[in-house]
Specification:
about 15% strand; about 600 residues; five-stranded antiparallel β-sheet; alpha/beta; Nucleotidyltransferase, domain 5; elongated; Endonuclease III, domain 1; 16 strands; 4 domains
């Protein structure tokens, strides 16, 4: 202690063996020092400590800086060699210190077994054991309490009902025999219990395994429970357990298929590959992959990449990953908690738990390695792979990832192979427009124009544009309150302005066979008349269509009557005479 006093930390004592009691006094004192150092070895080794002894001659013999005298006894020399492996100082102290407790004065009365020498035990354990012979078998059979009874019973004969206490030997009594004072079951020697361990060691000599040990034993030896003993020997052998194969793989337990896209995603890292790392995320519902090249794979960069992916596809409900440092960090855990995502990790060193991501990593690496000879950067090859993968059917779902994820396949250059009606129509329209290389004309409201007349004797009459009703359609005022609708091809620019009174409008009754007109009746006084002429080949329904374009109030427009003097077109084919079938001749039909 700091004040110079001594306080004991631990006590240890033992009784001397019968041979140690015959030691000389100096040997007993040396034995106490050596045994004390061995007892507190874990506290003394590697540290500088002080040995206090009340036997002064040992301070010279065990002094760490002095050599061992040549006349020292062999036992003391061994003790000195043992202490040479420690760092210590030895000092003499008289017996007046009284540090020894009462245990040194009260030895144990019970007998203690002498501890064997470590070197001797090591040498004996490496000596080859002698084989078990038939003489040992016969001698130990007579000493074994059970086999001795079986031996006697076999000699005098089995008695029905009296020898059932022998158990399994009684059931095999017909096959048990004696040969040269050894019991045999068939061709196999029945080994007594005292020699069974040696026989097991002999069977296990080559470390051939349980099956081969049992096969070898069935040719030589037997005793009750030999199969269980052989299995126990193999299971307790450290060498056999170290090289033993892994147990059979557990039955496959697939993940539950999510009902909607992007509900559960599996993430992992691929690489180092092509001088970079690739962050991989796969949707469990549609198998839609996301691959992002990364130079650094820290937790912060990982969170940034996932936040960018979530901004496009949304926040999933569950994320499955392995136990990588990026996925188990506090920063990543906080990101999962803040977004309400359930984070599930696989078992350590068991990648098949995250098999969806691992399998995609395998496909991704194979495709990128195969495309090394293709021209283009890594980013271009990655984009081509993702487009092809997302448009290819997956073996599990039998649908393309794009179809299940966004409801349609991604357009690609392969779509140009299939005929497309819309594309063909657009091409034909473009051809028609390219054939007519004329500038597009247009008219403004109030501009004088010549309008095609299909009712009167004049081919062109004059008017002015009242309204533009379509891209190439106009409404033209030919008289006060009279409007005609014409196509751009039926109009032409003019500078002639004709008074409305000079316009020859068709009169009721003035109808030619080839020029049907719309007859309007002035049912409402002081109302304007609207006459919509049409081509002779156009039916009278166009008269009704034109009436719908007249702004309210509008006159009542009657259907175009067919004139009595209109020519009836000649039939192209003869009229068919309809005759009832002969099977109805006997019936009255109405």
């Amino acid at each position: 202690m700091e004040d110079g006093s001594e306080r004991p930390k631990a006590f240890a004592s033992r009784s001397l063996s019968k041979s140690e009691r015959n030691y000389s006094q100096i040997d007993k004192e040396a034995l106490g020092i050596v045994w004390g150092v061995k007892k507190f070895y874990q506290y003394l080794y590697g540290r500088l400590f002080i040995l206090l002894t009340d036997h002064q001659p040992l301070t010279s013999i065990f002094h760490p800086e002095k050599g061992i005298p040549m006349t020292t006894a062999a036992r003391l020399q061994r003790y000195a060699l043992f202490l040479a492996g420690f760092q210590y100082d030895i000092k003499y102290k008289s017996t007046r210190h009284a540090n020894a407790d009462c245990l040194s004065r009260l030895p144990l009365v019970s007998k203690q077994e002498t501890e064997g020498d470590t070197v001797e035990t090591f040498i004996v354990s490496h000596m080859d054991t002698l084989p078990v012979t038939s003489k040992e078998i016969s001698r130990e059979t007579l000493k074994d309490p059970t086999l001795s009874k079986v031996y006697t019973t076999v000699q005098r004969g089995w008695i029905e009902g009296e020898d059932k206490c022998l158990g399994i030997f009684y059931n095999k009594r017909v096959e048990i025999s004696i040969h040269q004072n050894c019991l045999f079951w068939g061709i196999r020697v029945i080994v007594p219990s005292a020699l069974r361990q040696r026989v097991l060691d002999e069977l296990h000599e080559g470390h051939v395994g349980v099956v081969k040990m049992k096969g070898l034993a069935r040719s030589y030896v037997w005793w009750p429970g030999i199969d269980t003993d052989i299995e126990h020997v193999c299971k307790s052998c450290t060498g056999c357990q170290e090289v033993k194969h892994a147990p059979p793989a557990a039955p496959i337990h697939p993940w539950e298929w999510p009902s909607i896209p992007w509900q559960r995603i599996h993430i992992d890292f691929a690489g180092p590959f092509l001088d970079m790392m690739f962050f991989v995320a796969v949707d469990a519902h549609s198998k839609w992959p996301e691959v992002v090249p990364m130079k650094m794979t820290t937790a912060e960069k990982n969170v940034e990449v996932m936040r960018e992916i979530f901004s496009r596809n949304g926040v999933p409900a569950q994320v499955v990953s392995d136990n990588g440092p990026q996925f188990v960090s506090e920063h990543f855990s906080n990101f999962m908690r803040c977004n309400g995502i359930k984070h599930t990790t696989s078992a350590p060193y068991h990648p098949s738990t995250n098999g969806l991501a691992e399998r995609f990593v395998q496909s991704f690496k194979g495709a990128m390695k195969a495309s090394k000879k293709d021209s283009g950067s890594v980013q271009k090859r990655l984009a081509n792979f993702l487009l092809a993968y997302r448009n290819s059917k997956h073996m599990t779902t039998n649908e393309t990832p794009a179809k299940l994820f966004i409801g349609r396949n991604l357009p690609s250059r392969l779509d140009l192979i299939k005929p497309d009606i819309r594309r063909r129509v657009d091409e034909q329209r473009w051809k028609q427009e390219s054939k007519r290389q004329v500038p597009c004309r247009s008219f403004s409201v109030g501009e004088p124009v010549s309008i095609r007349d299909y009712c009167g004797s004049q081919k062109w009459i004059y008017g002015k544009v009242a309204e533009k009703t379509g891209p190439v359609s106009y409404k033209v005022e030919i008289a006060p309150g009279v409007f005609w609708r014409r196509h751009l091809d039926q109009l032409r620019a003019t500078e002639v302005v004709e008074k409305p009174s000079e316009v020859n409008l068709p009169v009721k009754g003035d109808v030619t066979p080839n020029s049907p007109t719309v007859l309007l009746e002035n049912t409402v006084s002081n109302k304007s008349r609207v006459i919509d002429n049409s081509v002779s080949s156009v039916p009278s329904t166009m008269c009704q269509e034109s009436s719908s374009e007249v702004s309210s109030p509008s006159p009542v427009i009657e259907p175009c009557p067919t004139p009595e003097n209109m020519l009836t077109p000649k039939r192209r084919y003869p009229r068919r005479n309809i005759v009832p079938p002969k099977k109805l001749q006997d019936f009255v039909t109405t």
